[in-house]
Design brief:
By secondary structure, the chain is of the alpha/beta class. It has 3 domains: 9-161 and 229-304, 3-Layer(aba) Sandwich (Rossmann fold), CATH 3.40.50; 162-222, no CATH class; 314-399. The protein contains 15 helices and 12 strands. It has helices spanning 9-16, 26-32, 39-46, 67-74, 87-99, 137-145, 165-176, 183-195, 215-222, 232-241, 264-270, 274-282, 343-349, 358-366, 376-392, and strands at 57-61, 79-84, 105-109, 122-128, 148-159, 244-249, 290-297, 318-321, 326-328, 331-334, 337-340, 396-399. It has a 7-stranded mixed sheet with strand order 3-2-1-4-5-7-6, sandwiched between helices. A hairpin with a 2-residue loop joins strand 9 (326-328) and strand 10. Helix 8 (183-195) crosses helix 9. Residues 61-154 form the Methyltransferase type domain. Pfam families: Methyltransf_12 (PF08242).
């Protein structure tokens, strides 16, 4: 490794431009927000084979100003260790630690590349929006893999190449203009964003980027000292080169064709091997700007985490609603998205309680008067396709065996 990560261009940026915007009130923030890989709400996506384990060891690798405190607050009996290269960011984490008496939070100014200095290993490692800023992303991934326990999980977010086309175009423009990380350059960026033509590729990105309301977010997006974006293939390569296994997409919708589609195109895509489907569809659903995924060790049992709707054990899966997904009346709601359900779909969704298996749900539906005439095999095939579809749309999580609870 060349240079000192605690004193390079990225560290200097975050010393001045603290990112993300510091949170002052955790309960108020949690009313409308959450951390994606928070095991208190997402454990079934991380460990489909088990219930939430409250006394786990968590590493937040590149914690920024808030993330570690949020996870320590929502997982009060877990031990949360956080590292970052920015002292001001760590300073705000300390403020939150003191304010909310987070005795389970431990903070270190340390680069991801040097995480072995902790001489610790972890059940869960969370690293969102960090590896793509390192001089050597692979070295960072290797370092994280080296402190992961056998049944542990790494939750990762990386920039997605095609959804950031507009960002990268503007980054190149601002570089040509000689803009730097100062107030006057930020003002020029703001002016540019207001003057762009409506059909510029950045326009589809802006509504999703709430952090652009703050100057530090503008610097992080358009004037960053170092970043790169990833494709499906390069995400998988990053994981496998580290000697790890690509566990699953945490946000799945951008990578799957519609289940049961009669479209000639989507039928052709669905006939491809799964990873090739993902690669094709990231170029179709090209507005996706971030890859959220999980990785684990090679010696973790695949049967403990692999969800396969074509497997013989599919009827033993336990469906549950993902965080803040629910049915209200005849509508199924997910953040920023909703859909009307017909009476048959509603009958199945009303049986989901986080404890019943798909087989149990099928039996309960058959016991309803209007469905009593149906054959069990037909119900099983319908429910498999229904639950697969909404699993791929990030509405449902699937538990394996006796796992219970909401994710």
């Amino acid at each position: 490794m060349t240079g000192d990560p605690l004193g390079d261009v990225v560290s200097r940026q975050y010393e001045r431009w603290v990112y993300p915007e510091p949170i002052a009130d955790l309960p108020a923030w949690l009313d409308g927000n959450w951390e994606w890989f928070d095991p208190s709400i997402a454990h079934r996506l991380l460990w489909p084979d088990r219930d939430y384990q409250p006394e786990m060891d968590i590493l937040v690798a590149g914690c920024g100003a808030n993330q570690a405190a949020v996870l320590a607050y929502t997982n009060p009996t877990a031990k949360v260790v956080a590292i970052d290269v920015s002292e001001p960011s760590l300073g705000h984490e300390r403020f939150l630690k003191d304010k909310y008496r987070l005795k389970n939070l431990e903070l270190h100014r340390l680069a991801i590349e040097d995480v072995d200095r902790l001489n610790r290993d972890f059940d869960l490692i969370v690293s969102t929006g960090v590896l793509h800023h390192l001089t050597d992303s692979q070295r960072g991934m290797d370092s994280l893999g080296g402190c992961l326990r056998r049944d542990g999980v790494i939750g990762i977010m990386l920039y997605a190449r095609y959804g950031r086309l507009g960002v990268e175009l503007l980054q190149s423009v601002f570089s040509d203009l000689g803009l730097v990380q100062d107030d006057s350059s930020v003002a020029v960026v703001k002016a540019a964003l207001s003057d762009l033509p409506e059909r510029h590729p950045i326009k589809s990105y802006l509504p999703l980027a709430r952090d652009l309301q703050h100057d530090a977010g503008i610097v992080d997006t358009f004037l960053h000292g170092r970043d790169r974006s990833f494709t499906v293939t390069s995400c998988i390569d990053l994981v496998t080169t580290a000697g790890l296994v690509f566990q699953d997409w945490f946000v799945k919708a951008p990578y799957y064709p519609p289940v049961g589609s009669t479209s000639a195109f989507f039928s052709s895509v669905a006939a491809l091997p799964e990873r090739q489907q993902w690669s094709v569809l990231e170029r179709i659903y090209s507005s996706n700007a971030c890859h959220f995924f999980t990785a684990c060790r090679e010696d973790r049992l695949t049967t403990d985490y692999r969800i396969d709707f074509l497997s013989a054990g599919v009827l033993d899966y336990v469906p549950s609603f993902r965080h803040r997904c629910r049915v209200e009346g005849t509508r199924l709601l997910r953040q920023g998205w909703s859909v009307d359900l017909d009476s048959t779909q509603l009958a199945f969704f009303h049986q989901i309680d986080g404890q019943r298996t798909i087989a149990d749900v099928n039996s309960a539906v058959l016991n309803l008067g209007e469905f009593a005439h149906l054959r069990l095999d037909d119900v099983a095939n319908y429910s498999r396709l229904l639950f697969q579809s909404f699993w791929q749309l990030d509405v449902l999580a699937m538990g394996i065996h006796e796992s219970v609870g909401q994710s």
